[in-house]
Design a protein that fits this description.
single chain
Length: 86
């Protein structure tokens, strides 16, 4: 959802999509690592850990982009191949 909100700010280029996808893939990998860690090393009643993570995630909602993140119009450059000279 955050990628959908900030994509128009940065022009919707491939670099923005790749950065968003890289972030979400890393987050997914960390989630898999967490699940692997919980199953392998924590005793069966690990509900407290899950509930505390759920509370932390709900406390940070809604995730909205800060308007200060929006770049000024002059800082967005075209990445077209014919625009290689300043």
């Amino acid at each position: 959802m955050i990628a959908k909100l900030i994509l128009p700010w940065f022009g919707g280029s491939a670099a923005v999509w790749v950065t968003c996808m890289l972030f979400f893939q890393i987050a997914l990998l960390l989630g898999y690592g967490y699940a692997h860690f919980i199953v392998g090393s924590v005793p069966a009643p690990s509900g407290n850990c899950h509930i505390s993570l759920l509370v932390v995630s709900l406390a940070t909602l809604p995730i909205l982009p800060n308007p200060r993140w929006k770049p000024a119009a002059a800082t967005i450059r075209s990445s077209a191949s014919w625009d290689c000279w300043p």
